[in-house]
Automatic annotation (TrEMBL):
The keyword Electron transport is assigned to this record: no
Alphabetized UniProt keyword annotations: Amino-acid biosynthesis, Aromatic amino acid biosynthesis, Cytoplasm, Transferase
Binding of 3-phosphoshikimate, residues: 28-29, 33, 175, 177, 330, 357
GO molecular function, one term: 3-phosphoshikimate 1-carboxyvinyltransferase activity
Protein name: 3-phosphoshikimate 1-carboxyvinyltransferase
Pfam families: EPSP_synthase
Species of provenance: Methylobacterium persicinum
Spans through the membrane: none
Origin superkingdom: Bacteria
Pathway in which the depicted protein is active: Metabolic intermediate biosynthesis; chorismate biosynthesis; chorismate from D-erythrose 4-phosphate and phosphoenolpyruvate: step 6/7
Length: 449
């Protein structure tokens, strides 16, 4: 099991406007996939801009344990010498993913489709997260679950088949992790593996598989084409390639919202990925009246990126449709923060997936709002936040439950409330945004121990 870092309590204090420019860390989703597809490719993959947070480094360590040769050349610059599909070796030790839900679930797909045996584990938060919805389709593809903790949780041991069985699988929830695990297992299947999703989720796996040489067909599915049917031709020869990782929109969300709610602020966030399946937060904030301007749109690493100029804004409450959730699932905690400053109520519909993240994020967000005097309620899977059209009280201490996004969201809250806001632990912020504290301080944010 992972070593647990000592808690790092932090507080954010309202102060001066935020000013300056920043580039958020590399996108976590693409960083994970660059390591994984580098492992499964033949030749040397070169990666620029890799997010060197703990989550991605755990995936890199797992790729090394499964046979890849990895070298760090400098900040964010890595090479991965892969072993190709079918060339993985049994790891000598447990694959410890720490807090990395994405890394662990995607790598289960890799192992589940290959003739290797590996044991997966993680920290207390990862051990509490459900893996059964990943294991169910994998067992249909020939994966054996040798051992598992209660409820299909880690620690668990998987043994993959000599060849995976191609299947057609409709995901039970809008989850890019389920989809990606099935597609990655399908790489070693002698036929076509198909995933059907009723609501389109982030498509980084499909894009990167194509970049590495796989044949992937994506078609609209269901009423009005809101869903996707993704078909992968199995047993391709993946070719090593160069990957430039764009800035992570999920990390950009924190300084973006901080600038919107802190009076007098104006910042520029550089190189942010503008994939339409990742920009639900920006769409919602624009509907709320946010002053966000896209500048210098361009292509990097197969994705559209842009610089964002963000100015402090008067926000109004809106109704956020459930079908937007897959495009902003990680950003709801910080959207709830923005909603607290808006005039009127903001209703966020269909947030079931928040209950199975690093924490029960829906409950954690509600508790954090309550601790800071912000009116809200949960109705089924919907969260309603009653904004005050200005600065809410603040003054509370928020339990983060080992969740990096809860920690960062409520520190952002404290930059503009009437009284400082504290979080019980910020140590896990390093899993996705290692430079969060110095970045926010450089903009003028007052965050400290």
């Amino acid at each position: 099991m992972s070593h647990t870092l000592d808690p790092q309590p932090l507080s954010a204090t309202p102060g001066a406007p935020l000013r300056g420019r920043l580039r958020p860390p590399g996108d976590k989703s693409i960083s994970h996939r660059a390591m994984i597809l580098g492992l499964l490719s033949q030749g040397r993959t070169r990666v620029e801009g890799l997010l060197e947070g703990d989550d991605v480094l755990r995936t890199a360590a797992a790729a090394r344990a499964l046979g890849a040769t990895l070298e760090r050349l400098g900040e964010g610059r890595w090479t991965v010498d892969g072993v190709g599909i079918g060339g993985l070796t049994d790891p000598a030790e447990v694959l410890d993913f720490g807090n990395a839900g994405t890394g662990s679930r995607l790598m289960m797909g890799v192992v589940g489709g290959q003739p290797v045996t590996a044991t997966f584990d993680g920290d207390a938060s990862l051990r509490s997260r459900p893996m059964r919805r990943i294991l169910d389709p994998l067992t249909r593809m020939g994966t054996q679950v040798i051992e598992e903790a209660a409820g299909g949780r880690v620690p668990l041991t998987l043994r993959g088949p000599k060849e995976a069985i191609p299947i057609t699988y409709e995901t039970p929830a809008a989850s890019a992790q389920i989809k990606s695990a099935v597609l990655l297992a399908g790489l070693n299947a002698p036929g076509v593996t198909t995933v059907i999703e009723t609501a389109a989720t982030r498509d980084h796996t499909e894009r990167m598989l194509r970049l590495f040489g796989a044949e992937v067909l994506v078609e609209p599915h269901g009423p009005e084409g809101h869903g996707r049917r993704i078909s992968l031709a199995g047993q391709p020869t993946l070719r090593a390639t160069d990957v430039v990782v764009p800035a992570d929109p999920s990390s950009a969300a924190f300084p973006l919202v901080a600038a919107l709610i802190t009076p007098g602020s104006e910042i520029v966030i550089e190189g942010v990925m503008m994939n339409p399946l990742r920009t639900g937060l920006i769409t919602t904030l624009l509907e709320m009246g946010a002053d966000i301007e896209r500048l210098a749109e361009r292509e990097e690493g197969g994705e559209t990126v842009a610089d964002l100029r963000v100015r402090a804004s008067r926000l109004k409450g809106v109704d956020v449709p459930a079908e937007r959730a897959p495009a902003m699932i990680d950003e709801y905690p910080v959207l709830a923060v923005a909603a607290a400053f808006a005039e009127g109520s903001t209703r966020m519909n269909g947030l079931h997936e928040l209950r199975v993240k690093e924490s029960d994020r829906l409950a954690a967000v509600a508790a954090g709002l309550a601790a800071n005097g912000i009116s809200h309620r949960i109705e089924g899977d919907d969260l309603i936040v009653d904004g005050v059209g200005g600065a809410p009280p603040g003054g509370g201490t928020v339990a983060t439950h080992l969740d990096h996004r809860i920690a960062m969201s409520f520190l952002v809250l404290g930059l503009a409330t009437l009284a400082p806001v504290s979080v019980d632990d910020g140590a896990m912020i390093a899993t996705s945004f290692p430079s969060f504290l110095p970045t926010m301080r450089a903009l003028g944010g007052r965050i400290g121990a």
